[in-house]
Amino acid sequence: MKILLTGTNGQLGRTLLGLLAPQHEVLAPLRAELDLADPAAIAAYVSAAAPDLIINPAAYTAVDQAEQDVAGAMAINATAPGVLAQQARQLGIGLIHYSTDYVFDGSLRDSAGALLPYPENAATNPLNVYGRSKLAGEEAIIASGCRHLIFRTSWVYSRYGKNFLLTMLRLAAERDALRVVNDQWGAPSSAMTIAATTASIIAMLPSGEAAQAWWDSHGGRYNLTTTGHTSWYGFTAEILAQAEAAGLLSKAAPSLTGIPASEYPVPAVRPVNSCLDTRALCARFGLTLPSWQQALAQCLTD
């Protein structure tokens, strides 16, 4: 299968490339070859490449910067996915796209006030520009009428690039004490978990006349995260414990203090509850997802 894969300089795109390249012909253009801020360039590239599938992990992920760069965030997260979707529709192929927990406002609770994980059909209400831009991208894909899978993820990390895991490991080497937010909740999800799940689903794709029926029954929006949930504080504690046990820390682990988000002000408001319900994905595709602790262990030791 010929796959057009965007964003291979990012942590998810890089991980996807490593998993898919041995089994497929993967086109992985860099920005000089495909500028996702240029709709005409996107259309021309896809038309000339004529792939069998498009996978779009590319995104504007600077959440705080997006508050001042609305146009930049919208160009990459909203307009570009829409153009890719239009091209997919014209070619009669599928598009796999990644979205975010930040399309929700984090207020979902049960009658007792306990946080609930968001199902796919929950009302969206993004609190920041990044979330609004990602939701607009989802809506553009759906409006195009193309065959699509949209995977909403949360708290993505890997051993590549800039992410929470690598930041905490760096700070653990530099400091004797850390203060981490303890009142925001979600499922830390490794890029490998997301990429491996994507690869498993791609392996299910039929060809020929069976393809349309498969996309009709399986296409849509799904939550794709690890299982379980924790706070940033809890995630940090587990990072330090696992890293220390694996001999990855250069000194004793720093002490850890939990703080409310109000003590760590940032330009973009984050949802308190980023937990996503993954039961629909697992049921539809017959998959089992790892716990967030298992995924972390795999990331640290691979």
Topology:
Layout: E1 2-5, H1 11-20, E2 25-27, H2 39-49, E3 53-56, H3 63-66, H4 70-91, E4 94-100, H5 129-144, E5 147-153, E6 156-157, H6 164-174, E7 177-181, E8 185-186, E9 189-190, H7 191-202, H8 210-218, E10 220-223, E11 230-231, H9 232-245, E12 255-259, H10 279-285, H11 292-301
Parallel strand pairs: 1-2, 1-3, 3-4, 4-5, 5-10, 6-9, 7-12
Antiparallel strand pairs: 8-11
Helix pairs in contact: 1-7, 2-4, 4-5, 6-9, 9-11
How far apart are the termini? 28 Å
The total count of strands amounts to: 12
Low-confidence stretches: none
By CATH reckoning, the class would read Alpha Beta
What gyration radius follows from the Cα positions, in whole Å?
A: 19 Å
Rounded average pLDDT: 96
Question: In one word, what is the shape?
Answer: globular
Summarize the amount of helix as a percent range: 40-55%
Full CATH superfamily name: NAD(P)-binding Rossmann-like Domain
Work out the strand percent: 15-25%
- The tally of domains stands at 1
The CATH architecture comes to 3-Layer(aba) Sandwich
Describe the overall structure.
The chain is of the alpha/beta class and 302 residues long. It has a single domain, classed as Rossmann fold. The chain contains 11 helices and 12 strands. The protein has helices at 11-20, 39-49, 63-66, 70-91, 129-144, 164-174, 191-202, 210-218, 232-245, 279-285, 292-301, and strands spanning 2-5, 25-27, 53-56, 94-100, 147-153, 156-157, 177-181, 185-186, 189-190, 220-223, 230-231, 255-259. The protein has a 6-stranded parallel β-sheet, with helices on both faces. Strands 6-9 form a two-stranded parallel ribbon. Strand 4 (94-100), helix 5 (129-144) and strand 5 (147-153) form a beta-alpha-beta unit. Helix 6 crosses helix 9. The longest helix is centred in the N-terminal third of the chain and has 22 residues, at 70-91. The chain is globular and about 55 Å long. The two termini are 28 Å apart. The mean pLDDT is 96.
